[in-house]
Amino acid sequence: MKLSLILLLAFLSFAFIPTKEPLKVDAISSETMINIKLDEGKKWPADDATSKHIQTMIALCEQALSQKKYEVPLLNETLTKEINLLNRNTQMTGDARSQLHNYQLGIRKRIQAISDNRGSVEWLLHELKRYADFFD
């Protein structure tokens, strides 16, 4: 009897443990905000390769938005490849590299959130353009 009661209590305690909901990302989600610090009020030095990849992603977003309808999977795949190339090709080091990492984490989440809702691409484009706020 005691064993049955203990097993029942154990089952009930596990049954009511809340599971983590999947991350919902939308244009107003605060879960994907980027925390980037400036270098004592100055922008971090960036290399040409990093800036080139950011500019390419900006152009891809602008091109998608200029179309009446864009292919979500293709845009997502192309942007993902570009951010992976950014990571492979960047020559940034030290604190600047750490802040680039923080910046690109937010960008990656926004790339994953791209949908046929144009606001998702506009949101990504806005954050890509913020690169100039943090990096020279």
Described by strand count, sense and barrel closure, the largest sheet is: none
Uncertain segments are: 20-32
Give the helices and strands as they follow along the chain: HHHHHH
Number of helices: 6
Q: Report helical residue fraction.
A: 55-70%
Description:
By secondary structure, the chain is an all-alpha fold. It has a domain at 42-136. The protein is built from 6 helices and no strands. It has helices spanning 2-15, 48-66, 72-89, 94-112, 118-129, 131-134. Helix 2 packs antiparallel against helix 3 (72-89), helix 2 (48-66) packs antiparallel against helix 5 and helix 4 (94-112) runs antiparallel to helix 5. The longest helix has 19 residues, at 48-66. The model is unreliable at 20-32 (pLDDT under 50).
Task: Please outline what is shown here.
With 136 residues, this protein is an all-alpha fold. The protein has helices at 2-15, 48-66, 72-89, 94-112, 118-129, 131-134.
Could you list some keywords that capture this structure?
mainly alpha; 136 residues
Topology of this structure?
Elements (H helix, E strand, L loop, with lengths): L1 H14 L32 H19 L5 H18 L4 H19 L5 H12 L1 H4 L2
Helix pairs in contact: 2-3, 2-5, 3-4, 4-5
